[in-house]
Specification:
The complex is a heterodimer of chains A (287) and B (317).
Chain A: H1 2-13, H2 16-39, H3 46-52, H4 56-64, H5 66-74, H6 77-82, H7 87-109, H8 112-118, H9 124-150, H10 155-176, H11 183-205, H12 208-228, H13 236-244, H14 246-254, H15 260-283
Helix pairs in contact in A: 1-7, 2-3, 2-4, 2-7, 3-14, 4-9, 4-10, 5-9, 7-9, 7-15, 9-10, 9-14, 9-15, 10-13, 11-12
Chain B: E1 2-11, E2 14-24, E3 29-33, H1 40-47, E4 55-60, E5 63-64, H2 69-74, E6 76-79, H3 91-101, H4 106-119, H5 135-147, E7 153-156, H6 165-181, E8 183-188, H7 191-197, E9 200-205, E10 208-213, H8 215-221, E11 227-233, H9 236-245, E12 251-255, E13 261-267, H10 273-286, E14 290-297, H11 301-316
Parallel strand pairs in B: 3-8, 3-9, 6-7, 7-8
Antiparallel strand pairs in B: 1-2, 1-4, 4-5, 9-10, 11-13, 11-14, 12-13
């Protein structure tokens, strides 16, 4: 794992996208700090991070697009498979290297509240609480990006899908207000989701029996629950969309609440997507 | 050293490797021979743990590649068909990464890198970017990578494909040298290459093992498809007259009958090629007609395959 980690890290320092990622992050934090903390003279640094979180939608996919897709394109994934290291070690090594790359600009950002504190009263606890949350949320997005990169060998495609998925996640709360809150609407949406999940499983495993079993299982479950107690579905879809949003949970930190459930949610998302990335790499051994 | 038992790999309905079993002993150069799509790369990928098998086992030095991949993989080095190189690195950086991933550390790693760089003669280019290297050098970097950790078995998938003739000769020499210290398995679809380097040959046809023998014996597998080809300075009717008098010769083909130089391919149905050459030479000499060229067309891979695949289908019928 350390070999992969060191190798990735040295790769990132030779790559332009890393510097673009850092520069964009710093630039937007700078702009945010100028607008909120200097021009509007607000003493809360967390608002700046709330403002910057949208930038992640673009810069995270750009950072993560190459992480596994590039290996596939250069056929170096064959080397990784033939080396005496497990795919879990490969994914962990790569992910940790990405975290370090992400942590470097964040360390610079972490100095800002201290600078502001010299010129006025800054509530440092919420500032650093939200920086910590900002880091973990970004880490969750990076895990998502890593998984998307593992699905394809085309970096542009990985970036495009990444931006689309993260944008959807960002706006899912606003969208939740406009989707149908009726039981039927939610049930229908769940059926569609089941079909989409089936398509994804089919694409990933190329196993038709598994696809049919999972999809039918989901559809039948939704059907049974709907006909026995349809109230379960009332307002379920908007609620689900709000719950799944990574960004919405971050605004709690911006508002000064250190929400442990959100942290656990982020960690779960990280573990889930890293697990999927390992499976996605492992699957290529079987197709 | 390597034991492959009932290996089968299916992709949906397509069977790439079909019940393949063989055993490889220590200290020889082995050649996997087969036409494109015969299952050579698939077999090699399974043997090195890059691919799963539908059925069967592969044991490297007693370790099952699926159950104990770590131990098994440490015993071999693998160069896939397309060298897995990071183009934006130098050979030294690349070898350092591979070495560390193989669990070699510190001074030991530096020493090993130095040795493999010397063995693959990469000293001159070790600090240049891999993307700037020629295909021959890239192939050497790939071989150097496989040599790290000093594994007992080196597996090379089509190591000379896409190289120019000089590079091919250099890589073949390198493989021969490696064969003195390691067990080398290489795949190829070029028979002459396998004949030149390998001590034992496995022929794979449609995912099945068609033959496993020394290259010399393989030629003998060709019973009926040898030809003798010659260029004579004579008129076509003269040649036909001479050939008709030779008893062992019954089937021939005359090509480009212009210029007074005629090329003739004689098919040998029975008898030794040397005897037929002798009779042809003496018969032409007797009539005072010059032979400008006389060659035995040796075993040709396609013929081996036609022979072996025909044999297969006959068995199947």
């Amino acid at each position: 794992m350390t070999a992969v980690f060191k190798h990735e890290l040295s790769n990132y320092f030779h790559s332009l996208t890393t510097y673009i990622f850092g520069a964009f992050l710093l630039a937007f934090v700078g702009i945010g700090a100028m607008i909120y903390n200097i021009q509007q003279a607000v003493a809360n640094f967390e608002y700046v991070l709330g403002f910057v979180s949208l930038v992640f939608v673009v810069i995270v996919p750009v950072l993560t697009m190459r992480v596994i897709a590039e290996e596939r394109k250069q056929k170096t994934d064959q080397l990784l498979y033939s080396l005496p290291i497990t795919t879990t070690q490969v994914v962990t090594g790569k992910y940790l290297a990405l975290l370090v790359i992400y942590l470097i600009p964040l360390c610079i950002v972490a100095i800002y509240p201290l600078i502001f504190a010299k010129y006025g009263e800054v509530y440092l606890i919420t500032s650093y609480g939200s920086i910590a949350a900002f880091f973990i949320m970004g880490a969750a997005l990076i895990a998502m990006g890593t998984f998307i990169s593992s699905l394809t060998e085309n970096q542009g495609f990985a970036a495009g899908i990444g931006i689309a998925v993260m944008l959807l996640n960002y706006y899912s709360v606003s969208l939740a207000e406009h989707v149908s809150a009726t039981a039927f609407g939610s049930a229908a949406a769940l059926c569609v989701l089941g079909l989409v999940l089936g398509a994804v499983i089919r694409f990933m495993t190329k196993n038709e029996n598994l696809t049919y079993a999972v999809t039918l299982g989901l559809l039948v479950t939704v059907g049974i629950v709907y006909f026995t107690d349809s109230t379960v579905f009332e307002g379920l879809l908007p609620k689900l969309m709000t719950q799944l949003s990574l960004f919405e949970r971050f605004y709690k930190f911006v508002n000064g609440v250190f929400d442990l459930t959100a942290i656990i949610y982020y960690l779960t998302v990280i573990a889930f997507f890293l697990f999927l990335s390992v499976q996605s790499l492992e699957k290529r051994r079987y197709n | 050293m390597i034991k492959v038992e009932h290996l089968t790999k299916r992709y949906g309905n397509f069977t790439a490797v079909n019940d393949l079993s063989f055993e490889i002993e220590e200290g020889h150069v082995y050649g996997f021979l087969g036409p494109n799509g015969a299952g050579k790369s698939t077999t090699m990928n399974i043997m090195t743990g890059c691919l799963s098998a539908t059925e069967g086992h592969v044991r490297i030095g007693g370790h099952d590649i699926f159950d104990e991949p770590d131990k098994a993989k440490k015993l071999m080095g693998y160069l896939p068909e397309q060298p897995p190189l990071y183009m934006n690195e130098t050979p030294l950086e690349y070898l350092k990464f591979v070495g560390e991933a193989k669990g070699i550390k510190g001074r030991e790693l530096a020493g090993q890198i130095k040795t493999v760089v010397e063995r693959t003669r990469l000293e001159d280019v070790q600090n240049r970017l891999i993307s700037k290297l020629s295909k021959g050098y890239r192939q050497r970097v790939g071989i150097a990578q496989a040599l790290l950790g000093n594994p007992g078995v080196i597996i090379l998938d089509e190591p000379t494909v896409g190289l120019d003739p000089i590079q091919i000769i250099e890589i073949r020499d390198l493989i021969k040298q490696l064969g003195q210290e390691h067990t080398v398995i290489l795949s190829s679809h070029i028979l002459s290459e396998v004949q030149a380097i390998c001590e034992k040959v496995l022929i794979i046809v449609r995912g099945k093992l068609a033959a496993f023998d020394e290259p010399g014996n393989l030629e003998k597998l060709l019973t009926a498809s040898n030809t003798v080809s010659f260029v004579a300075e004579a008129k076509v009717w003269e040649i036909e007259e001479i050939l008709q008098e030779i008893e062992a010769v019954s089937d021939w083909q005359i090509k480009n009958p212009e210029d007074g130089r005629v090329r003739v391919d004689v098919r040998i149905d029975s008898g030794e090629a040397n005897d037929i050459c002798r009779s042809i030479f003496l018969a032409f000499a007797e009539k005072k007609r010059a032979l400008l060229e006389l060659t035995k067309k040796g075993a040709n891979l396609e013929d081996v395959f036609i022979e072996l695949t025909e044999g297969e289908s006959e068995v199947a019928d």
